[in-house]
Amino acid sequence: MQTTKKRRIWWRVLVIILAVIIFAAACLAVAVAWVWTDEIYTIASFTKLRDRNDTNEEGSIYSMDVHGGFYFDDFLAQGGASSDSELIDFITGKITRGLIDMNIKQTDIGCSAFIAKAENGDILFGRNYDFDKTNVALTFADPGEGRYKSFSSVDLNYVGIDTDSDVGGLMDKITCLAAPYAPLDGVNEMGVSCGIFMSYQGEQTEETNQQQAGKDNITSTTMLRMILDYAATTDEAVELVQKYNLHDSANTSFHYMIADATGRSAILEWVPADGVTDSGDNDGSARTLNVIYNDDPMYEEMLEGADFRYQSITNFIITPGYYDGEPEEAANGVDRYDYINSQLAAGSGVIKDEQAAMDILQAVGRRTWAGGGGVTVHSAVYNLTKKTVLWVGNENYDDPTAVWQYDLTTGELTHPAQV
């Protein structure tokens, strides 16, 4: 009898302990869900769209819906970041809660972009991202609270995902929560589009590192995120950028192109004082912002009589005088630049449609153009009038399964009926 009572007591104790453990676990789960609600939904949305093809140097293609504001307001409120390490510290602390170590990797890219008008009057912004085999994510964000929803393309290598393997378990997906901070190009719901391009400035490719007193700081890709989230026009984007010291990421130099639905576009370059050319441009802190709009007088001869003031960019500085006295090879991508302009000039700045824009991008793709090494990871044609995207992965222009169309108004991602 005594033994039976003892057994009952121990059983009750075990039941109570088990109940306490279950209750604690439930409370922990509720707390985690409360703190990580947006991150959990974002991770759950992560979807593979296309498998990698290592024999053809193609990484995998993913999509992700970013829930919440990903703390970007907090990032700007704290004064931004003056280096990749400061950006990493912020993302690690805010987004990943210190669970992972993020890494921003150096890249060696050679890209192209242009703005043109379609025959139906739509404004088109075409962009190639040239690199090597890498995983990429089509990233959709709708942060609300006075910020615009957007589509952007993100090279996941840039946030630390290995190029030779897929995004694997939970930790890889947590790493991808940093993707909104690393757009390479994109468009927002107001029809503002932008892209980043290597500029190879200086004898050793010196990055821009501005130090103007009284200004907050911003890095390369976070500047693009700021434009997508807050700018309704090209002019608004420029005004935003002018408030910040730029600190280029990944130990290299970049310039940028912005366009809007009115057809106004601008190239943003950080260059030294007049008279300092490429070989002497080795102090990134001595550069100032130069904005070259598509109605700049430097284009008058090229665009005389044009029906639309097109503009293009590759991987050399557009600012007049920058290469005075320098060898021709100092300016990277002049051949692609000249080809793009010749195609646009043939129609006086007007091309048939999105597919015609994609055909130009295909012609200057990395595999096509002089048999260059690497790959054009993606080609995107942003329709700034309709707020749609025509997107092709890894130069598979003739493969319908590698072509997507995204509609920023409806949020639908589909394979278009015709390529």
How would you describe the overall organization of this protein?
This protein is α+β, with helices and mostly antiparallel strands and 419 residues long. It folds into 2 domains: 1-35; 48-414, Penicillin V Acylase, Chain A. Helix content is 27%, strand content 25%. The protein has helices at residues 2-35, 37-45, 72-77, 84-94, 170-175, 220-230, 234-241, 300-303, 334-346, 354-363, and strands at residues 47-50, 61-66, 112-118, 123-131, 136-141, 150-155, 185-188, 193-198, 216-219, 244-247, 254-259, 265-271, 288-293, 311-313, 350-351, 375-383, 388-393, 403-407, 412-414. The strands form 3 sheets. The protein has a 9-stranded mixed β-sheet with strand order 1-2-5-6-7-8-11-12-13. Strands 3, 4, 14, 15, 16, 17, 18 and 19 form an 8-stranded mixed β-sheet that branches. Helix 6 (220-230) crosses helix 7. The protein is globular. The N and C termini lie far apart (83 Å).
Please specify the SSE layout and strand pairing.
Layout: H1 2-35, H2 37-45, E1 47-50, E2 61-66, H3 72-77, H4 84-94, E3 112-118, E4 123-131, E5 136-141, E6 150-155, H5 170-175, E7 185-188, E8 193-198, E9 216-219, H6 220-230, H7 234-241, E10 244-247, E11 254-259, E12 265-271, E13 288-293, H8 300-303, E14 311-313, H9 334-346, E15 350-351, H10 354-363, E16 375-383, E17 388-393, E18 403-407, E19 412-414
Parallel strand pairs: 2-5, 3-15, 9-10
Antiparallel strand pairs: 1-2, 3-4, 3-14, 4-16, 5-6, 6-7, 7-8, 8-11, 11-12, 12-13, 16-17, 17-18, 18-19
